[in-house]
Amino acid sequence: MNKHEILKKYFGYDTFRNAQEALIDNILEGKDTLGIMPTGAGKSLCYQIPALMMEGITLVISPLISLMKDQVGSLNQAGIHAAFLNSSLTVNQYYKALAFAGQGRYPIIYVAPERLVTKEFLDFALHVNIAMVAVDEAHCVSQWGQDFRPSYLKIMDFIEKLPRRPIVSAFTATATKEVRDDIIDILQLHSPMVITTGFDRNNLYFGVMNAKDRYGAIRNYLETHRRDSGIIYCLTRKQVEEVCERLIKDGFSVTRYHAGLSDEERRKNQDNFIYDRVPIIVATSAFGMGIDKNSVRFVLHYGMPKNIESYYQEAGRAGRDGEPAECILYYSSRDVITNQLFIDNNQDNRELDEVTRAIVRERDKERLKKMTFYCFTNECLRDYILKYFGEYGSNYCGNCSNCLTQFEQADVTEIARALIGCVKSSRQRYGTTVIIDTLHGANTAKIKNYRMNENPYYGLLSKVPAYRIRQVLNHLQMEEYLLVTSDDYAVVKLTAKSGQVMEDGGQILMKLAKETGRQAREARDRDKKRKKSSFSQDLFTEKEEGLFEKLRTLRLEIAREEKVPPYIVFSDKTLAHMCVVKPKTKEEMLGVSGVGEFKFEKYGERFLKCLL
Ligand code: ADP
Ligand code: MG
Ligand code: ZN
User: Fold this and answer.
1) Is the pLDDT assigned to residue 64 strictly greater than 90?
2) Would you state the pLDDT for residue 5?
3) Within 13 Å and on the Cβ side, how many CA atoms surround 228?
4) Neighbours of ion ligand 2 (CB under 5 A)
5) For the segment 461-504, what is each residue's pLDDT rounded down to a tens digit?
6) How far apart are CA 146 and CA 310, in angstroms?
7) Ligand 1 lined by 68 (C-beta under 6 Å)
């Protein structure tokens, strides 16, 4: 079979996505390969298809048991023999799997990196033909990445022990140059072909909300997305507990995940989410790697993460099936302080010496600042993220909250001058709140204490709403006309550019959202313009919507019988395609994206019946 036939027969897809074919061809030519593609782009197929075409066994190195289980489950459902070897197996199961593997039953075997150099595994590996070692989540070899795993360093030791060097392929979604270079060096790839696709996930909508009542905002969101499955990320365990509890009280079906729960509860809650028994999970950043559930329709952030890397990784768990999904960050200025505390008390860096620790801390604060600016910017959010990763977007994506808000250019020079003047006259000693309260003429104990009510700028902007003063202050910070220090006190300081604003012609313009009836209209416009995140709301007629629900119920039933998560039976996308195509025959059913021959044999008829 050629690669196209395999794609159709086992995976049920008609065409390769952009970089997949080049990566597969390169591997088939016997060359080392590094594929850097965003989450959901379809990296797995790039090693699975060559694995089925090459003489010999492909070992896939993967960092997490849950990831392996998922992938092997998917392959077996598609009719491909695959197995995993990791610590979730009992000793007996492990030896049995190794024995089967030795007989050549599995073209694809997933292995935990720490198993590679054990005696039992080497005994096996030295006596079979290993065609390829595919390293999934390859950024785990790099200390620059978020998820460094020392056991990944064993991969090279293992390869060196083999009588014949296999092809080595590596895959990751992490884009930075440091990580890429590390992967090539540490895995000792031989003049690899490196393919990087764009990092844009154009099916994701990005939004930032500056909500006073964050909980209320999130509850409203959930109320209008009743049927969808999603993740709500919080900054702390305490927040997870609070949000989860309130949502349960408000009648939502939610579960929770954070490092403070027992292993057992974590596993149970994660499974409930993955198996679609509970649609919503509230979690800290501990939840995530290895969550391959591809029908996550939204990722909400109750609080700002510590950097853009984390944000994009977490938000990227939405819409892995390629269908529209939403990523919304609910921001509060308190998040900056929480994150600063995390950075200052970071326990992960304990082994580092004093100097290195200081450098790391500085770097983390710089990253936090870039994250904060993401929440302030009025420019295209997608563009902001892509630029951060060194790519250039189009300045207008039409699918983020900034692109969908009407802005007008406003002259804020007066406010800017008052801010800079106030900082200067109070000798750069105070934080943002004191400066804003002074200009606004607030009558607080703190203001009196600092005698800011005697400052010449006191009350100068009493007619300007405080939020507007803060917006301008944020803007000045982004444009480096002012600086907010990132030490314990977060003091507003002047910069080399501050003086320019005070000079004649030192005009400051900024984009501000149009005011009149703004929010209501914005929300309406947005809903009209953007693709909806729920399949059911937009794509379907009412009849099809009922059909989709019927298919989902059948899928759940089959998933229970097969003991796999529902999305491994068929993705939401495949079910949606069925609703539109309404196949009546086997041939028509095989034309649906995601329906391969093996799956058709197994449960195709039941779906056909359901569609009658
Ligand atoms: P990654 O590892 O890059 O995050 P996966 O390999 O898990 O992504 O694939 C994400 C989803 O895309 C899966 O549901 C997969 O079946 C689907 N997919 C992969 N390749 C194709 C393709 N050529 N056409 C349609 N869907 C695909
Ligand atoms: Mg993957
Ligand atoms: Zn945009």
Assistant:
1) no
2) 96
3) 27
4) 43
5) 999 988 899 999 999 998 999 998 877 677 999 999 999 999 88
6) 8
7) no
10, 11, 289: residue to mutate for ligand 1 pocket, most atoms within 8 A of CB: 11
Q: Tell me the three-class secondary structure of 265-277, residue by residue.
A: HHHHHHHHHHCCC
Q: Is 574 in the pocket of ligand 1 (CB under 6 A)?
A: no
Indicate whether residue 228 lines ligand 1 (CB < 6 A): no
Give the residue, by CA position, lying nearest to ligand 1 atom 9.
42
- The CA-CA-CA angle for residues 454, 460, 465, to 5°, reads 125
For the range 330-334, what are the long-range contacts, defined as Cβ-Cβ under 8 Å and sequence gap of 24 or more? 330/209, 330/211, 330/214, 330/217, 330/218, 330/300, 330/301, 330/302, 330/303, 331/208, 331/209, 331/210, 331/211, 331/303, 331/304, 331/375, 332/210, 332/211, 332/214, 332/303, 332/304, 333/432, 333/470
Residue 267 makes CB contacts below 8 A (sequence gap 6+) with none
CB of 321 within 6 A of ligand 1: the answer is: yes
Ligand closest to CA 139: 2
| HEC per residue, 29-96 | CCCCEEEECCCCCCCHHHHHHHHHHCCCEEEEECCCHHHHHHHHHHHHHCCCCEEEECCCCCHHHHHH
277 CA → ligand 2 middle, Å: 23
Contacts of residue 206, Cβ cutoff 8 Å, sequence gap at least 6: 315, 327, 328, 381, 382, 385, 399, 400, 401
CA of residue 45 to ligand 1 center, whole Å = 7
| Cβ–Cβ < 8 Å for 237, 259 | yes
Q: Residue holding tokens 């951060």? A: 388
Locus of tokens 């979730």: 88
Q: What are the beta bridge partners of residue 410?
A: 510
| Residue 202 backbone phi and psi in degrees, to 5 | -75, -10
Most confident of 17-31, 64-78, 338-352, 534-548: 17-31
Tokens describing residue 378: 């009025």
The answer to whether residues 82 and 110 touch, using CB atoms and an 8 Å cutoff, is: yes
Atom of ligand 1 lying closest to residue 71 CA? 7
**CB-ligand 1 contact for 421 (6 Å cutoff):** no
Number of neighbouring beta carbons within 10 Å of residue 528: 8
Instruction: Tell me the two tokens of residue 499.
Output: 């003086």
